[in-house]
Amino acid sequence: MFTRRVAVVGTGYVGLTTGACLASLGHQVVCGDIDTAKVERLRRGVVDIVEPGLSELVTEQVSAGRLSFVVGAAAAVSAGFPDEGDAEIVFLCLPTPMGVGGVADLRAVEAVVEETRELLAAGTVVVNKSTVPVGTAGRTAELLDRADVAVVSNPEFLREGSAVHDFLNPDRIVVGCDTAEAAERVAALYARLGAPTVLTDAASAELMKYAANCFLAMKLSYVNAMAELCERVGADIGDVTDGIGYDRRIGQAFLSPGPGWGGSCLPKDTHALLQVADAADFEFRLLRATIDTNTRQRQRIVDKVRAAVTGRRTGSLARVRLGLLGLTFKAGTDDLRDSPALAIAALLRQAGADLVGYDPALVGDPGDPDKVAPGVVEGPVGREVEGVPLVSDPIEAAQGAEALVVLTEWPVFRTLDWAAMAGVMKQPVVVDTRNLLDPATLRRAGLTGIGLGRRVA
Ligand code: UDX
After folding, report:
1. Which of 67-81, 246-260, 313-327, 393-407 shows the lowest mean pLDDT across its residues?
2. Are residues 436 and 414 in contact, defined by beta-carbon separation less than 8 angstroms?
3. Residue 265 falls in the annotated catalytic set
4. What is the pTM of this model?
5. Residues forming beta bridges with residue 104, ordered by sequence position
């Protein structure tokens, strides 16, 4: 079978998934990370990221001798392989956080290029998998200053919470390079997946990632705006999206209204593309409106909570106790980055509300009570996230609350003992920003459920 020696620099969720999945496709993979403690943990098979199947795949591939971990980029690209050869293909899976004014911060990529540029064997292909500004492949090639090393853009489209599945079942593989031979070598790594492959130039590949994520963000802003319109005209967003989703040009996926889109990708990428457009002197109004609609969505949820609790659009939330159900940016992850739930919590707190939060991903690990998700800190009265005290059971969030606000679509919320929850609340109101709960179940439990864009029964 055809195998390559692959180095992966960066073991975040993209890097670790890439490394473990490429190993499972038969390649020899060495992953490097600057975090010595993390490398130690990975060597012992301990995966810090909550990602279904990832930990098992890492353990399996390490035991099979196809996957190993080293400290630093330099060690990963050279001499880390069992046959003592150098890496033939080097993946950069590094953080590109949003810097000042929405511009992606490329310092991590630049530092790794600096560290490895003289170590790469002639003919190595350097692959950028992180979402980077258009033109980064060209810039990386300039920094590398190696005529014998090609730079390829191979954007990753995986979602948190289904990263392994998405990697191994891609809708498409995109490989962009100004040298066709290097692009084909990278595409060949994935040949066993049998996915459609788009070979293009580097700038088009880089832009394609933004084009996809910004389109998804636009789809969600559209749905959230449509849900608001439904409320005003007495229509039901669930029926509307169901109906339009049968049109294959639209599709059923990514049509659920919510508290606004968040996470580590969509907010960052929409702002970054706006920067790309600004720099190219292009007024991308549609994209700006997509972002503005999302910002407004958070305030809209606060207004909904205010109206639900006080019965008035201008009622006061001062000292009103609210229980928040779900704080992560979506279900299936413990990731709190750019979580709409936390943005809404901040607005509710500004309005004077007294908050407690419950999230199944943040209750702590019974096997290791000291282990907490990134973003969870010890506050004066226990664990908290951005000033929201955490409770370890949904019933504690309901205790004395004037409303519960469902902010993340955790399936377990559907089957809570809602009658018991209602029994301990000060006022039996649930604002369901994900349209997750069955209104009839809530009604039977004595609760008033308020969703987004739902027909009032
Ligand atoms: C996204 C892209 O889907 C993925 O292709 C890309 O590589 C990285 O960014 P991710 O950030 O993991 O993945 O989350 P995703 O599942 O896309 O959700 C993004 C946000 O949209 C979340 O806040 C989610 O709650 C929200 N969302 C998603 C909705 O509100 N409604 C939906 O129907 C789908």
Report:
1. 67-81
2. yes
3. yes
4. 0.91
5. 98
Residue nearest to atom 6 of ligand 1 (CA): 157
CATH number of the domain located at residue range(s) 266-450 in this protein: 3.40.50.720
Atom of ligand 1 nearest to the CA of 155: 7
Q: Which of 31, 214, 230, 265 is flagged as catalytic?
A: 265
CATH class belonging to 5-200: alpha beta
Q: Which of 266, 295, 337 to mutate to test the pocket of ligand 1 (most atoms within 8 A of CB)?
A: 266
- Residue 157 Cβ inside 6 Å of ligand 1? The answer reads yes
Q: Residue holding tokens 């929201």?
A: 388
Q: Cβ(262) to ligand 1 under 6 A?
A: yes
Question: Do 5-200 and 266-450 have matching folds?
Answer: yes
Residue 158 C-alpha to ligand 1 middle, in angstroms? Answer: 10
Residue 1 has pLDDT above 70, yes or no: no
Please classify residue 122 by burial: count the beta carbons closer than 10 Å to its beta carbon, then call 0-12 exposed, 13-18 middle and 19+ buried.
Answer: exposed
Task: Report pLDDT digits (tens) over 302-319.
Answer: 999 999 999 998 999 999
261 lines ligand 1 (CB under 6 A): yes
Cβ contacts of 197 within 8 Å, gap of 6 or more: 172, 173, 174, 175, 187, 190
The CB of 159 under 6 Å from ligand 1? The reply is: yes
Question: What phi-psi label fits residue 72: left (phi over 0), alpha (psi between -120 and 50 degrees) or beta?
Answer: left
Residues in contact with 228: Cβ distance below 8 Å, sequence separation at least 6, in sequence order: 300, 452, 453
φ and ψ at residue 267, rounded to 5 degrees: -60, -45
Find the largest Cα–Cα distance for the chain: 71
Q: What residue segments make up the domains of the chain, in order of their start?
A: 5-200, 266-450
For a substitution probing ligand 1, which of 159, 250, 333 has the most ligand atoms within 8 Å of its CB?
A: 159
Residue 306 in contact with residue 315, Cβ under 8 Å? yes
